[in-house]
Each structure stands twice: as C-alpha cells, then as structure tokens.
Specification:
Oligomer: single chain
InterPro entries: MazG-like_dom (IPR004518), NTP-PPase_MazG-like_C (IPR048011), NTP-PPase_MazG-like_N (IPR048015), NTP_PyrPHydrolase_MazG (IPR011551)
Radius of gyration: 25 Å
Organism: Asticcacaulis machinosus
CATH topology of the largest domain: Helix Hairpins
Number of domains: 4
Largest sheet: none
Helix content: over 70%
EC number: 3.6.1.9
CATH architecture of the largest domain: Orthogonal Bundle
Number of helices: 12
Keywords: Hydrolase
Shape: globular
Protein name: Nucleoside triphosphate pyrophosphohydrolase
CATH class of the largest domain: Mainly Alpha
Length: 273
C-alpha cells in the first residue's frame, strides 16, 4: 500500500473538549449527572443528537449545524471516556480505528488500485465489508445491520443487503403487486376486528414500502420527513386561516378544515420555484 504522510493535526480544540469531559466525570468535583451516566443511558441522547444534525441540514441552518455537530462529537467523547474508565479503549483509539477503516476501504485512493469507476468501487466496498464481517465473527449477510436503527431505515437496509445476493423482486411492478396484496390482507384483518393480526399486516405493508423506496432509489426516512414537513406546513395554514377569524381548529368543522387544507395545497402548486 502506498504510504501517505499526514500533517499533524492541531489538537488544541479536541484536547480542550477531552479535558472538559475529564472534569465532568471527576470523582471529586465532577457533575453528579454526568457521573451517573453509562453507555446505555447516553445512547438515546446520541441518537437524538444525530437526528438534530439531520434537522439542521434539512433546515439549511449552518449555525445550528455547527452546534449540533459539536453536540454529536461530545457524545463520541462521552462514550470514549466511559470506555477509557473501564479500560476498553479511548477517544484516540476511536479516531485511529476510523482512520484505518477508511484507508482499508479506499484502496483506490490510498493504495495501488486507482482508476476504479464508482460501480467498481461499490462492488469492492461490499467485498471488503464482507471480509470485515468474517473477522468479527459476523458471517451472516444481515448480521451487522444495526438493530437500533429506526425501523423504516433498517427495513430498507435489510432489503438492500439481501438484494445484493439476489434475494429481491426482479421488477418494480412485482413490488407494487405485493403492496396491493399486503394492503388487502391488512383490510381483511381490520374487517374481522383482529387488531393483533392487523398490526402484523401493517408491519408487512411498511416493509414492502421500504422495498419500494429502495427500488425507486429513495431514502424512506427522507420521503417521510418531506411529507411530515408538508403536513405541518398545510396544517399551519389551516390554523392561520382560522385565527384570522378569531377561531381555532377545535372551533371548526372537518369540512371547513378540509376546504382550507385544499386551499393550502392549491396555493403550493402555484408558488414560484
């Protein structure tokens, strides 16, 4: 592998953050809340901070993005510090492992395999990751798809991974047919009043939707976030229209709110850009 010399990073900023973490977890004079935390109790905050990063990006708020990325970095520092206390690893080990992984997975950049196309690199990436799974005693195709992912995201990743070894619907039309089939099965369970089976059928329907998103090269979470934002935008228009007449949604009728919803929808269609 070609050797690449790397400039020594300016460690002042990260060292300051690591020292703040040291103080927060100090047995004498540290923060009582921080001292109580474990990997398990911090994990939900780590996930929340990742979502807040995505939210700042969605809003194109670069000031917030800088702050949210800092919050997410602190989560890594926090986990690293707890690991260091337990003699497992530390922040430097985390950074070093990531550097080694990136170099290992990009031989076309850091090695002697230059000139790959994007498709060739994607194929090579999967081969490298398969070898890594073997070294971790994770031999199954789906073994390293994280259980903690949002269910819709995980469904898309599971089906994408299975599709790479040929376990997939050959055409988009077959996915749409399956979508119709699962919809009918859900309706049937609802009609007989079996809510437990209806729950299972709803899960099947959502799983097919994740497959459909993959077939369309759409991230299902992105698609749903867009629809959530659209719903908020249009419902806010309903509230604003009613407020102009001194009323609130609970003082309106469904028919009136439907009309205002359609007005908001029509207004979006004629907006420039």
């Amino acid at each position: 592998m070609t050797q690449h010399t790397q400039p020594a990073p300016n460690r002042a900023a990260i060292d300051d953050l690591l020292e703040v973490m040291n103080r927060l977890r100090a047995k004498d004079g540290g923060c009582p809340w921080d001292l109580e935390q474990t990997f398990e109790t911090i994990a939900p905050y780590t996930i929340e901070e990742a979502y807040e990063v995505a939210d700042a990006i969605e809003r194109k708020d670069m000031r917030d993005l800088k702050e949210e990325l800092g919050d997410l970095l602190f989560q890594v520092v926090f986990h690293g510090h707890i690991a260091k206390e337990q003699g497992l690893f530390d922040f430097d080990d985390i950074a070093r492992a990531m550097t080694e992984k990136l170099i290992r997975r990009h031989p076309h950049v850091f090695g002697d395999e230059a000139g790959r196309t994007a498709d060739e690199q994607t194929a090579a990436w999967e081969i490298i990751k398969a070898e890594e799974r073997k070294s971790k005693s994770k031999h199954g195709i789906l073994d390293d798809v994280p259980v903690g992912l949002p269910a819709l995201t995980r469904a898309a990743k599971l089906t994408k991974r299975a599709a790479r070894v040929g376990f997939d619907w050959p055409s988009l039309g077959e996915v749409l047919d399956k979508l119709d089939e699962e919809t009918q099965e859900l309706k049937a369970e609802i009609e007989v009043g079996n809510l437990e089976n209806a729950k299972a059928e709803l899960g099947d329907l959502l799983f097919v939707m994740a497959n459909l998103a993959r077939k369309l090269d759409v991230e299902p979470e992105d698609a749903l976030r867009g629809t959530n934002a659209k719903f908020v935008r249009r419902f806010s228009s309903i509230e604003a229209a009613l407020a102009a007449h001194g009323r609130t949604p609970d003082q309106s009728s469904l028919e009136e709110m439907d009309r205002l919803w359609n007005d908001a929808k029509a207004a979006e269609r004629v907006m420039p850009g």
